[in-house]
Amino acid sequence: MSGDGRSVEQVCGHPAVRTLLRTRGELSAMLLDERSGATQQLNDSAAVVWALLDRPITVDELVADLVEVTGLQPEPAAEIVAAALETFAEVDLLVDPNAPDHGIGADDEASPSTVADVDADVEVDPDVEVVADVDVDVPQRLSRPPDP
């Protein structure tokens, strides 16, 4: 944390964790951890947070991005981010991009990647664990301007 209480540590999705599918409009996602073969199904809010972990980002920036793309107020957005990051960390889905042993090689992406986007509803195995089950209404948009 910085002296003014803002978070300055960065996080990003682990490069070995891939988004297998995301249903457009529903903002749900299933993740595959290529290290273990484990899958995690994300609910709407966790899927939005995961999508925003597409680059090294501070927690404060992540909250601001969530506010921007969802229209949520900062306080509930911060609660959603905290819950999602805590759960992502518990199942080893995050990496510190500044750590020397983060596992990101020169040719690797430092962020989650999508293997397949699909429009259709997809049947999901009921035995797949739901990560970061935070119930929040998320608008049907997940877009932000490209980084300059």
Characterization of the model:
The structure is a single chain. The protein has 148 residues and is of the alpha/beta class. The protein has one domain (10-131). The chain contains three helices and nine strands, in the order E-E-E-E-H-E-H-H-E-E-E-E. Strands 2, 3, 4, 7, 8 and 9 form a six-stranded mixed sheet that branches. Strand 3 (28-33) and strand 4 form a beta hairpin. Residues 1-8 and 104-148 have low confidence and may be disordered.
- Helical content stands at 25-40%
Biggest sheet architecture: 6 strands, mixed
Rg, rounded, reads 15 Å
Number of helices: 3
Could you give the order of the helices and strands?
EEEEHEHHEEEE
Coarse morphology: globular
Structural domains: how many = 1
Describe the secondary structure blueprint for this structure:
Elements: E1 10-13, E2 17-23, E3 28-33, E4 39-42, H1 44-52, E5 57-58, H2 59-70, H3 74-90, E6 94-95, E7 113-114, E8 117-118, E9 130-131
Parallel strand pairs: 2-7, 2-8, 4-9
Antiparallel strand pairs: 1-5, 1-6, 2-3, 3-4
Helix pairs in contact: 1-3, 2-3
Quick gist of this model?
This protein is of the alpha/beta class and 148 residues long.
From the structure above, extract its key features:
three-stranded antiparallel β-sheet, six-stranded mixed β-sheet, 148 residues, single chain, 9 strands
